[in-house]
């Protein structure tokens, strides 16, 4: 087992890893920018190293600075959290070249799954169902229009290196294709340095279902059920739950086994999530995230496992502490993402927290790095906390969420808490009768925009 690990991240996920390491008796090293000198993960870690100015490109994305921090502290392994360098194959290679351990999958697995065309081809060969679409990259508007005619409109154009909703545009008909195609390419180039795009059939009323998988890198893997992440705004998830209210036990077992078998065959290491669109009883692969997900706590709640602990164990060469038959669903869990944003336009709202009180009680977990007097910097993502609730069933989890939201106090900045108060009054949310387009339609109707 490792004696010391470095956490190449910030905020609540860095704090999450610090806590897991401490329970395992492992010393932790926090890295931080000058803007995060007073951050909670810096205060809670055993050691901390400043790695640069506020700009993430000069701090949290600076590979030389992170490697140097390992060298000066004697850290043996790096946990990337999510975002930043967590799915950067080049970074993983550098980590390994310096004799350090990356707590996550191999550089090759990240590389394969990071390119959506290669990922789709790989999953097809592994028997995972995929959305109908182009066989590879699409180079011209003319070729794009031919594909649109072949599969039928609407279609969605996606940047091959895309993520987070960037580089994705829908064309409802041939007339919209040119603008959508060129815009997706431009966004891919601007955000990811790659303007290659591919095209898929656009499903009209799907749900977003993702399967949590975990592999030991030695040909063994399990699945930990699904999460329903269909309540989204601009392809960004805001509300996640497990198990999915629309998935039967038979469907869960079948798609879960397909995913676990697939990652076992490629000797995948650690946590991963295989994401699908689900419509009319069919699953269609869209991408694989080769890292821990923001919404991993809902899976931890219903299976009573610690995924971060398991990541560290497997990275250290230990066996997985559970097998498929050990994983039985217990109850229902929901997570809502609390962002420092001002409604109705969701404008980032950094500033000083004048009062913070986390909700508590049975079945309530608050993952946040906030504290009284903390100043949210303007340089990073606006996520400031995740409220997770667990109940015996979905109605109890919803009631617990409503109660916990009422206890949560975040004064000094605007947050998205009012959005969730409003959503919990909606029949479609209470019954689980929503799809990936539901929230944006609701926002247009109720808030005058999205």
TrEMBL record:
E.C. number(s) listed in UniProt: 6.3.4.14
Organism name: Roseobacter cerasinus
Residue stretches spanning the membrane: none
Gene Ontology MF term list: ATP binding; biotin carboxylase activity; metal ion binding
Domain annotation ATP-grasp: ranges: 120-316
SMART domains associated with the record: Biotin_carb_C
Keywords: ATP-binding, Biotin, Fatty acid biosynthesis, Fatty acid metabolism, Ligase, Lipid biosynthesis, Lipid metabolism, Magnesium, Metal-binding, Nucleotide-binding
Coiled coil in keyword set: no
NCBIfam families: accC, PRK08591.1
Catalytic activity: N(6)-biotinyl-L-lysyl-[protein] + hydrogencarbonate + ATP = N(6)-carboxybiotinyl-L-lysyl-[protein] + ADP + phosphate + H(+)
PANTHER family reported for this sequence: BIOTIN CARBOXYLASE, CHLOROPLASTIC, PYRUVATE CARBOXYLASE SUBUNIT A
GO biological process entries: fatty acid biosynthetic process; malonyl-CoA biosynthetic process
Record carries keyword Hydrolase: no
Protein name as annotated: Biotin carboxylase
Pfam families (UniProt xref): Biotin_carb_C (PF02785), Biotin_carb_N (PF00289), CPSase_L_D2 (PF02786)
Gene3D superfamilies in UniProt: ATP-grasp fold, B domain (3.30.470.20)
Boundaries of every Biotin carboxylation domain copy: 1-444
Function field: This protein is a component of the acetyl coenzyme A carboxylase complex; first, biotin carboxylase catalyzes the carboxylation of the carrier protein and then the transcarboxylase transfers the carboxyl group to form malonyl-CoA.
Top-level division of the source organism's lineage: Bacteria
Record-linked InterPro entries: ACC_Biotin_Carboxylase (IPR051602), Acetyl_CoA_COase_biotin_COase (IPR004549), ATP-grasp (IPR011761), BC-like_N (IPR005481), Biotin_carboxylation_dom (IPR011764), Biotin_COase_C (IPR005482), CPAse_ATP-bd (IPR005479), PreATP-grasp_dom_sf (IPR016185)
């Amino acid at each position: 087992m490792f004696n010391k690990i470095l956490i190449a991240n910030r905020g609540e996920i860095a704090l999450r890893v610090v806590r897991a390491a401490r329970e395992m008796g492992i010393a932790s090293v926090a890295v931080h920018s000058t803007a995060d000198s007073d951050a909670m993960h810096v205060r809670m870690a055993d050691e901390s190293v400043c790695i640069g100015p506020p700009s993430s490109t000069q701090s949290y994305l600076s590979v030389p600075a992170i490697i140097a921090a390992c060298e000066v502290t004697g850290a043996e392994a790096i946990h990337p959290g999510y975002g930043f360098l967590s799915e950067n194959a080049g970074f993983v290679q550098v980590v390994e070249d310096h004799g350090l351990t990356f707590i996550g999958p191999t550089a090759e697995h990240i590389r394969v799954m990071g390119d959506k065309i290669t990922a789709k081809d790989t999953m097809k060969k592994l028997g995972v169902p995929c959305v109908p679409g182009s066989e590879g990259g699409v180079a011209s508007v003319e070729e794009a229009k031919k594909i649109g005619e072949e599969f039928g409109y609407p279609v969605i154009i996606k940047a091959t290196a895309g993520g987070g909703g960037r580089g994705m545009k829908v064309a409802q008909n041939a007339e919209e294709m040119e603008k959508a195609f060129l815009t997706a390419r431009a966004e891919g180039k601007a955000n990811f340095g790659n303007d290659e795009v591919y095209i898929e059939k656009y499903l009209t009323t799907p749900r977003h279902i993702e399967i949590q998988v975990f592999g030991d890198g030695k040909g063994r893997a399990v699945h930990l059920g699904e999460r329903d992440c269909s309540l989204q705004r601009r392809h960004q998830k805001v509300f996640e739950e497990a198990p999915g209210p629309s998935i039967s036990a038979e469907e869960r077992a079948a798609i879960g086994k397909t995913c676990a078998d697939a990652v076992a065959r490629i000797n995948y290491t650690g946590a991963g999530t295989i994401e699908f669109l689900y419509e009319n009883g069919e699953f269609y692969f869209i991408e694989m995230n080769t890292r821990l997900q923001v919404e991993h706590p809902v899976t931890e709640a219903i299976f009573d496992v610690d995924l971060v602990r398991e990541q560290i164990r497997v990275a250290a060469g230990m066996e997985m502490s559970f097998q498929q038959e050990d994983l039985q669903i217990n109850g229902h869990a929901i997570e809502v993402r609390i962002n420092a944003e001002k409604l109705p336009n969701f404008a980032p709202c950094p500033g000083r927290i004048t009062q913070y009180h986390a909700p508590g009680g049975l079945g309530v977990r608050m993952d946040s790095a906030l504290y009284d007097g903390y100043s949210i910097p303007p340089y990073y993502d606006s996520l400031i906390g995740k409220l997770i609730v667990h109940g015996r069933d979905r109605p109890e989890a919803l009631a617990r969420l409503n109660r916990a939201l009422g206890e949560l106090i975040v004064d000094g900045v605007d947050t998205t808490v009012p959005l969730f108060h409003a959503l919990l009054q909606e029949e479609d949310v209470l019954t689980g009768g929503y799809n990936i387009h539901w929230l944006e339609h609701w926002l247009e109707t109720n808030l005058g925009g999205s």
